[in-house]
Amino acid sequence: MKIALISTLTYPSDQGLRYISSYLRDKLKHKTIMIFLPIEENYNLNYSEKTLAQLRDLVKDCDLIGISAFGSTRFRAQQVLSFLKKEVPKIPLIWGGVHATLWPEECIEYADMVCMGEGEEAIGELVIKLEKHQNYLDTKNFVFKKDGKIIKNELRNLTHDLDSLPPADYDIENHYIIDSSNSIVKFKEKDFGGQIFNMTVRGCPNACTYCINYAWRSKYIGKGKLIRRHSVDYVIKDLARLKNKYRSIGTIDMRAETLFVMPIEEIREFCDKYKKQINLRFKCLSDPPTMDYEKLKLFVDAGLTDIIIGIQAGTDRINYEIYKRFISTKQVLKAAEIVNKFKGKVAVMYDMITCNPYETEQDLVDTIKLMKKLPPPFFLSINNLVFFPGTELEKRARLDGIIKTDKDTAADLNYWDRWKHIKLKKKNEYLILIINLMRGVATKHRFGVMPRFLLNILTTKSLIKLNQKYKLPTYIAGNIVQGFDFLRENLAKKIYRKILPPSFKNWYDKIRYRI
Ligand code: B12
Ligand code: SF4
Question: Is 325 in the pocket of ligand 2 (CB under 6 A)?
Fold first, then answer.
């Protein structure tokens, strides 16, 4: 069979779809083509007619078409599927990925089949049945529509042995990507932007209510261990092959939810082999409870230069009661102390979530206090809450009357359009804008563009009270911020992504969280 796999994500990263491709190609010996369609992060933007026509020409001789989307890019997936349904009606269309897992009932309206959860073995079984013209309507993980009725099958067990899966497909010979003129062209090495993603570990020890992992955990009860790891040799062999094949790769981005769930002995083995055989800088993610001095030391010695740690809410109340994220501010401060011991060697980014209608004025004041306690230097990344459709928190917010229409979820907003998020939530605008303005490098003297002394003045009780009551100054400042965000998204980001060479991106990536 010839199978086309289309990604709607805004980066040509898409580990999940790459794993699907290599499973079909290497294990089942089918031909796959991958088509990456990353356009802007303005999620209201759809693909042009020219792009769709080229897409049709690329896939028209395929036997099966699969597409992947996040909640935010689901409108683009819907557009592609509706178009292909009209243009190539005989080719079955499958929708898979995080959004399809969270909301299969919506997705089946646009596709012939929806794949929920982990996809490799599921699509493998489906393809075998399709090839042999067997009944496929009982294939686990899949949702089908037959005679107007929806058939939703149960989930199969999680793949226990990750090494039984071929490594993610990074062989660009049969890959395509959209270029700056909206044409679909052959994927070139430069499109990696100098870095390659890797998922050494699948699954997360936490289950936050705004995240896919909450749904993942509840759907997969009794179906296998959630946290699974590739063996060290599997990862090293794959990375070594990619390093030799693509000389412009300067960074490995380890995107496991927390790399620190690996046992120390395995980390020792990994770091030893990584230094000898790969020797490229790498980045990873962690959460406060799994942060550990010995493990971090090994990683830093092996080339770790950047780490992202999720703090999310600045108070235990929001983390525990709203996010069901049982990580205390005490644990956060302890992790921060450990990381700070490596300052100068590893840049740390703390991920925070704000703009949450469940936050009170006091929660926000306490969040600012916590951020002031974190030992500098660090990079503060401020994210405004999106209620991704189908997540636990989205369901709760609908029941609580916070989400009245789909627009209220903010899933169609550009992640970085800060003022639009704040205006949409219409609560605590003053304090949330201040937190958003703290984004950037934090030193002893400043938070991003804001000097610490100014922050102290702006967060005095009287100024907070005044500005929470009289909103005009906040709205004026917010509109100025929106102007800057517009320029960054529409000018700076475009130049960075589409024009600058991988060598510049590698260099900038090294310094961006430090300046
Ligand atoms: C790594 C990662 C990233 C990386 C790379 C993304 C990638 N896909 O390669 C980067 C840094 C680029 C990234 C960016 C963002 N991310 Co992210 N990211 C993740 C993370 C931690 C892991 C994804 C992953 O690789 N999983 C492992 C692979 C193997 O699993 P998978 O992708 O789910 O794929 C499997 C199945 O879903 C299925 N499948 C997938 N596609 C298809 C297609 C077909 C046809 C079939 C049959 C099956 C199938 O089979 C795959 C293999 O088993 C997830 C959390 C998570 N656990 O998924 C968040 C997550 C996907 N990210 C999320 C978000 C919000 C973002 C950002 C918007 C955040 C931001 N501030 O920018 C951006 C947006 C990027 C964009 N729009 O393109 C959300 C999405 C929420 C939602 N409901 O849509 C998630 C789920 C985390 C969360 N909060 O819940 N992310
Ligand atoms: S710690 Fe991060 S990846 Fe894990 S469940 Fe929470 S938000 Fe999701």
Answer: yes
